[in-house]
Amino acid sequence: QSGFVVHETVRDKSQSGPVKYLSEKVDRDEELLVNPRYDLGSARVGVNMRVFLVNHIYLKLRKQGVPSDQIVLISVHGDALHDSLRGAMIYYPDRRVRSRAFGVVKSVYTKRKEYTRRVTFSKGDNQLSEKYSRELGKTMIDSFRDAKWLTHRNNTVRGYIIRRGKKSLPAILRYSKIPTSILVEVANLNNSHDRRLVLDYRNRQKIADAMVNGLESHFRGSKGLIAQR
User: Fold this and answer.
1) What CATH number is given to the structural domain containing 124?
2) Each residue of 122-152: pLDDT tens digit?
3) 30-32 and 38-39 beta bridge pairing
4) What's the domain count of the chain?
């Protein structure tokens, strides 16, 4: 009903569709929707391959005539912070941490249809990506708050993470060709209250509705309507 087309990147082979009740048991049967499929056994390989996949989808849409400002990447996760912290937060690609090129050459990648040997990013690309992505991040956080979903109190929309004392970015933001790219941490799964909330399908639907509403607001410059399901 929202008019958005969603291109998924990961499939859980044990779930044929949305489920009401989730288990806290670790589930390791997800596959990345590249061709041929890749079982997510290696986190490092999976991260790199997801970069190839999202960039392939982006270039395919551009060839079909879809304007770049009508394409967004939203990578959805659950955070793993200190258990005293709660709520959602969003990362966008700070231009100072973005890379100028991406490329890996290994058979696990090259045998996939989505593989590209090298992807480059100009200074202008990185500046625009920072601007557009930060704007979407702020709009999305506003939408979470409108939906009464808890968010971090401070620095809720961030351009980088601190890893081993240095500024860094998740690979999907560092190497995405999609100008508007954000990573959404919907909750802190190390916090028992946040974890219980996410296990409840009604709260997951609240998150999904808030994200749709945030996209409506981003594209149309208005509050939009909460999507009905």
Assistant:
1) 3.40.630
2) 999 999 999 999 999 999 999 999 999 999 9
3) antiparallel
4) 1
28 Cβ contact partners less than 8 Å away, ≥ 6 residues apart: 40, 41
Token readout for 176 is 């995405």
For residue 31, the 8-state DSSP code is E
Please give the model's pTM, rounded to 2 decimal places.
0.93
Q: Residue 109 is part of which domain span? A: 10-220
Residues 6+ apart with CB under 8 A from 172: 47, 50, 51, 54, 73, 75, 181, 183
97 or 42, which is more confident:
97
Contact 137, 74 (CB under 8 A): no
Residue closest to 60 by CA, chosen among 116, 102, 129: 116
What is the rounded distance in angstroms from the CA atom of residue 40 to the CA atom of residue 30? 6
Residue 106 falls inside a structural domain: yes
Decide if 178 contacts 61 (C-beta within 8 A): no
